[in-house]
Amino acid sequence: MPAGADRPAEQPGSASPSPSPQEPTPGRPVLRRAEVARMIDHTLLAPAATDEEVLALCAQATRLGVGAVCVAPTHVYLAAASIRRGDRDERTPTAAVATVVGFPHGNHLTVIKAEEARRAVADGATEVDMVIDIANAMDENWQAIETEIIEVRLSVPPHVILKVILETALLPDESIIAACRAAEAGGAEFVKTSTGFHPAGGASVRAVRAMARAVGGRLGIKASGGIRTADQATAMIDAGATRLGLSASEDVLAGFPV
Ligand SMILES: O=C[C@H](O)COP(=O)(O)O
Questions:
Q1: 163 catalytic residue (yes or no)
Q2: CATH number at residue 248
Q3: pTM, entire model
């Protein structure tokens, strides 16, 4: 079962209600299913996820044409092997393998996050989503956040994409902006809204807009946590998201025209 599939939309981790995106943003072409699929990190991070469920996720990823799968560190090796096999059989473009570090609470020692990232890359991950030490953001200790990001950045090769999870439901806009700047200074490629596991909630249009104001055009912006419909996904993209972390990828994509 995909992570969060057993949660109703308004439970912890769900995306905040957003303005209806039914009216297309002026000047933006209609979003097509294949284009949105390439923006998706198809995600399974449920603590009890089995190997069988990870293999099903990878098969689905290949079928849907998503940009990446995102799995727990313990499943990276399996996912990377499965994606490679699926690509050979189906002759479809390769989905990247992403994983998480310091997940979901973020209060692991920096040295543990750095080693977790290094091992994940050795196992086949090319994208790493690290959770910041959220207490540092509550304390507005931006230097500590930047230092930790630098440590993780230095633990993996330059080609690895580093995404920094801020748990934005806990933060006012000014803190989101400051954390995004610390992520940029620390060498991250992306900032990401949420783990999808915090009781305060998941992605919101408010947070994505603040992130876009801070680093849009320079860093990628990943909206994740509680996005269950094409309307919610569209609202995130219109707010500035360039990636979507979704466990409900199939349902979301079904709402976009081919
Ligand atoms: O990192 C991504 C999230 O865990 C995905 O959250 P979701 O299951 O609410 O889509």
A1: no
A2: 3.20.20.70
A3: 0.91
